[in-house]
Amino acid sequence: MLQQIADAQLTTFVIKDLEHRFLLVDQALADSLGLSVEKMIGRHDLEVGIPERMVLGDSKLGFPGFWALDDEAVKAGCPLHEADSDLRKGSESMYSADTLRTPLRDKDGNITALLVQSRDVSDLIGLHQNLAENRATVELQDGHLSVLGDVLTSLMQNLDLDTLFDHIAETIVVHTRAQSAYIWMLNEAGCYMEAVAAVGPQKRACLGLQRPRGQGIAGKVWEDRKSVFMDKTTVGRYWLPDYIYEQQLCCVPLIVDDDVIGVMVLGSFSWDVSIRPEIALAEKIANIAAIAIKNAQLMASTQAELSRSRALSELGSSLSAISDPYADTDAVCRKLLDTIDINGAVFVVVNEHGTLESYVAWGKLSQEIKRLVLLPAEMVAETICAWCCQTGEEAFISRDQLDARESSRIHAMRDEMNYGSTSCMPVMSAGKVFGALSIVRERQRCDLNEREINVFRTVVNQLSAALERYDLHSALHHQANHDSLTKLPNRRQFEEELSSYLEPKSGNDAVGAVMFMDLDGFKLVNDTLGHGVGDELLKLVACRLSGCLRSEDLLARMGGDEFAVIIKGSQSLEYAVEISTRLSDSLSKPFLIDGSSLNVGTSMGICRFPEDGTNVDDLLRKADVAMYQAKNNGKGQILCFDQTLATKVLKRVQIEYQLRQAIAEEQFELFYQPKVNCQTGIVDGIEALIRWRHPDKGLIAPADFISVAEEAGLINAIGSWVLNEAVWQASQWSDTALGKLRIAVNIAASQFQLENFSSEVLDVLVHHGVPPDRLELEVTESIVMKNLDAVITRLQTLRTAGVRIAIDDFGTGYSSLKYLQDLPLDVLKIDRSFILRLQHEECRQSLVNTILLLASGLGLETVAEGVETLEQKEKLVTLGCSSIQGFYYSVPVLADALPGVVESINALVAPEPHQRAA
After folding, report:
1. Name one GO biological process term (predicted).
2. Which end of the chain is more exposed for a tag (fewer CB within 10 A), N or C?
3. pTM to 2 decimals?
């Protein structure tokens, strides 16, 4: 907008809000009123001393006033010249000014402000000068294409960055009427712009100057992202000593991918010819220059990356050949400056007295790599390197951070040395801190990124490994055979130990037992409190378990929360059970971690040798089978292996494998069972029930495969298929007698817990064109009792859309009146077990009656499932149940048989022919 004002060569301009308050004021107008621009901002015309008759109008002269003209322009919604205003036609002029009012809109097209531009019509010289300049601009435009062709050819020559910057500045002077040119580029961290190239007498003084965002001409254009023309009479506070001799400046942003990467400045030392018309050409040159700069930056970055990759390869080779830790570490630090784009590398060591001393320091200053002066020991103790050595942990300091782990004089040194982003890592040797390696980057550059820190971490790790060469064999052996967290033997060591023990010795067979343990409740701790707490818990568990065993026995961590034990020298089953009970009891007391009391238990499987096997794989498999079944029996159990158990587990594995095939081949079918309204006797809904059509075994009921699907993580895929198939079938019935029946679908717990569950349901309904009120979702109490807030949110989303919600098998879980009040529900389904009991109970004293009264009080409908006899049906009708479902009316049937079943049920209550005729 400022550019438009400058182009118009207007004397004054202001921007007002819709209540006539000044938002932006021209310095010339402020000067004419004897006020500062700051004092005018936020006030209206009357408050800054403009006469009332000019603001509110003069009826004698027929002048409507500024405010009326402002309002007319806003109402018109387009630029309004004062002379063309309906309010001004025929009225006399109160002042010799030509005024244009232009409404300003936001990004949504709403008028939010008004630009008022005025100029003195007596200034004919200025008017003619404008005309001349406009003509010159038109003539200049004709030559733009050829100029831009030359510019494009010259800038796309794969020049290095420094040469390219100079070339762009020279190009500006050659192809425009500018007499000087400057290139300002955004620094790497994006915190300031720096003059990187210049043509003209100011070159030496300007190069290297820095301007933050919003400061100076470069900073202003960076902030506003717009081209601007400035001279010493209009620029105000943005005219800085950078340009002492220039009388005019054109400033153009360099933009790539909507990001400002720099600013291009054109200057003129005289007033004779205006360079304002050069902005259009300069913007076109800037577009080409920005692309050329970005290409050059990418090429420079690629070349630097290749160079660093080669340096990293060389460094890896030198690390593998380290023999003298002190001498070779110096070489490592020196090569780090080539491997990672840093400005310094420092290595401190822990000497034989246990104190820190600076050993080597390398720095890169103006691309020259040289040794740096070492810090004295007392200052080293105040650095981040000392903290790393004391804690054995990595540390990172961002470019603008004063880290509390360093002293104030280290902060001062950082400021003096221009140190910024820092990464420091301990170097270990023989399990102890050998020293610390630190890399640093200049403050004006970006922080070290994750990839660079990972490369540094790799180098440090390699250095640590190399420094431990004299003890490498034992360290590697221990690491390969022990769990790093608990320090227990790992699976590999366990298997080697068991295999060695099972080998025949002196004709005597080895006897003993293998126990396989899995922690109960550990996953909940890990998921809710984090892996850090989980790791601490595993260490404490390992400690307690170790205290229950003899020195000749072996406890190992097999992975995750699984442990295994070898009990040697006892063939007694009673002794094995006694040890396993002792292990289980050791975990019964709570664990205290970070102020939290945590409880875990264990499920355990036992097998003995040689009775149950004589090789490692066989024994571990059988102990695992026993443990798995113990967990299925309710957790906290101890179970010994037998062959029946193995057969049962094998059957489950087979079902899981076949289920995966069934999902892939869509071997499932949906059967449908009607729900009958107790009052009308008419079918008012149906439930979709899944069956598995096995290619060899025929039809398989859900009770025989759903639990396996849940354990194997297949239930979500099956549940999605059921939902989609049921809704599709409902769409097929839309134009039939079944078109208004609501279809109920069961939802698995894990399926419901998915974050996108609600949107998936609604998407399926939209996809098949089925109204939401034709779908009813049945969820179990176990679902709604977990994470109640999230459950309410999901259910409310569905219910708001029109989907009905039912609680299935009500009364068989941990029923809670509170959740019944809080949850958005429509239906309670009474479990079949209560219906069976009803047959032997008095109606009013039955649990069914209690549930019905509860549902009635909460305004919920009820469905009794599993109704098989007339007596059950009549009692439910008497007690006021809403609907009935069960074999009494119909077994579940396939979709093509359902219309006939519904018709036959409805016919039971249809009026006699003579009644219909009447």
Report:
1. cellular response to nitric oxide
2. C
3. 0.40
Q: What is the CATH number of domain 509-641?
A: 3.30.70.270
DSSP, res 912: P
Q: CB 192: neighbour CB atoms within 10 A?
A: 18
Instruction: Compute the distance between CA of residue 91 and CA of residue 683 in angstroms, rounded to an integer.
Output: 82
Residue 333 three-state SS: helix
Q: Residue 219: its pLDDT value, please?
A: 84
Q: Is the previous residue joined to 674 through a cis bond, with omega within 30 degrees of 0?
A: no
What confidence category does residue 126 fall into, taking pLDDT thresholds of 50, 70 and 90?
A: very low
Decide yes or no: CATH 3.30.450.40 for domain 136-302. Answer: yes
Nearest to 822 by CA among 854, 779, 784: 784
Place of tokens 């009264």: 853
Cα-flanking dihedrals φ and ψ of residue 439, to 5°? -120, 150
The architecture that CATH gives domain 325-473 is: 2-Layer Sandwich (3.30)
Which residue, 421, 420, 425, 416, is CA-closest to 385?
425
Query: 2-122 is classed in which CATH architecture?
Result: 2-Layer Sandwich (3.30)
* DSSP-assigned letter for residue 398: -
Domain boundaries, the chain: 2-122, 136-302, 325-473, 509-641, 658-903
Radius of gyration of the chain measured on its C-alpha atoms: 42
Convert the pLDDT of each residue in 381-436 to its tens digit.
888 888 998 898 998 988 888 889 988 898 888 888 888 889 999 988 777 888 88
Q: In 561-682, which ranges are E strands?
A: 562-568, 591-593, 596-598, 601-609, 638-640, 668-677
Angle between helices 715-732 and 757-768 (to 10 degrees): 30
The dihedral over CA atoms of 122, 125, 131, 136, expressed in degrees to the nearest 10, equals -160
Superfamily the domain 658-903 falls into: EAL domain (3.20.20.450)
Residue 12: closest CA among 118, 146, 109, 133: 118
Beta partners for residue 538, in sequence order: none
Return the percent helix, strand and coil in the chain, to nearest 5.
45, 25, 30
Rounded to the nearest angstrom, the gap between the alpha carbon of residue 434 and the centroid of all alpha carbons in its chain is 38
Among the listed residues 587, 515, 512, 577, the one whose alpha carbon sits nearest the alpha carbon of residue 545: 587
- pLDDT tens for each residue of 129-170: 444 444 444 444 444 545 555 555 555 555 677 888 888 888
For residue 7, the model assigns a pLDDT of 40
Q: Among residues 201, 234, 205, which one has the least CA distance to residue 217? A: 234
The pLDDT value recorded for residue 766 is 94
467-523 pLDDT tens trace: 776 456 555 677 788 888 999 999 999 999 998 888 876 556 778 889 999 998 888
Residue 91 scores a pLDDT above 70:
no
**Closest residue by Cα to residue 419 from 402, 405, 432, 435:** 402
Question: In sequence order, what are the residues at sequence separation of 6 or more whose Cβ sits closer than 8 angstroms to the Cβ of residue 178?
Answer: 172, 250, 266, 267, 268, 275, 278
Average pLDDT over every residue of 696-708: 87
Helix (H), strand (E) at residue 915:
helix 913-917
Question: Which residue is associated with the tokens 């009813």?
Answer: 776
Phi and psi angles of residue 609, each rounded to the nearest 5 degrees, phi first: -125, 140
On whether the CB atoms of residues 445 and 420 are closer than 8 A, the answer is: yes
- In angstroms, rounded to a whole number, what is the distance separating the alpha carbons of residues 107 and 123? 36
Q: Do domains 136-302 and 325-473 have the same CATH topology?
A: yes
Positive/negative CA dihedral, 381, 382, 386, 391? positive
**601 against 120, higher pLDDT:** 601
pLDDT at 818: 67
Alpha carbons 396 and 440: distance in angstroms, whole number: 10
- Spacing of C-alpha 735 from chain mean position: 45
**Spatial contact of 538 and 488, defined as CB atoms under 8 Å apart:** no
752 and 794 Cβ atoms separated by less than 8 Å: yes
